Amino acid sequence: MIIIGIAGGSGAGKTTVARTIAERLGSENVDYLSQDWYYKDLSHMTIEEREKANLDHPNAFDTKLLVSHLNLLHQGKPIEVPVYDYGAHTRKKETVHMSPKSVAILEGILVLAIEELRSVLDFKVFVDADPDIRLIRRLERDIKERGSTYDNTIKRYLSTVKPMYDAFIEPSKRHADIIVPRGGDNENATNLLAEMVEHYAGHPSS
Question: Residue 70's domain is classified under what CATH number?
């Protein structure tokens, strides 16, 4: 198995790049994981405390569990992936069974910023995009998909998202093997990346 890490700011287009590669190789060959699924469970906090939690800091993630899951997949063993409730900021009781395949794609804002994660990655990709584009996409996602409001999304962006991007995400670019400029809209770069993964994984496109 090869493990590909795809990092970048919120709204940069990481998911688009990751899914393009996954679709090209075929679902029978790819395990897709999101770092977001591994947010720490905040059920011990009050709702008010959860709302104020910094979800863009490396400490927000259960990295130990994520690394152990990647290692298990690499060893050919199945895992039980956690399910995170973004509205309640808690981890649900149910899990999703995942069997090992020839390629695992992990995408998330801090995939390259955390040394323990970088150490298990075979390919490291950073998806770059203009800040205004990232902010617009963040607004659309959080309001439409995660039950946030415009005011709360802007407040979180200014208080944690942008400062954490400057402190952790942008500097992690230097660890990337490949940088995809212009985010998920860069079809040429995404296609070239997909072809490289196909070649390395031994799954030529049909």
Answer: 3.40.50.300
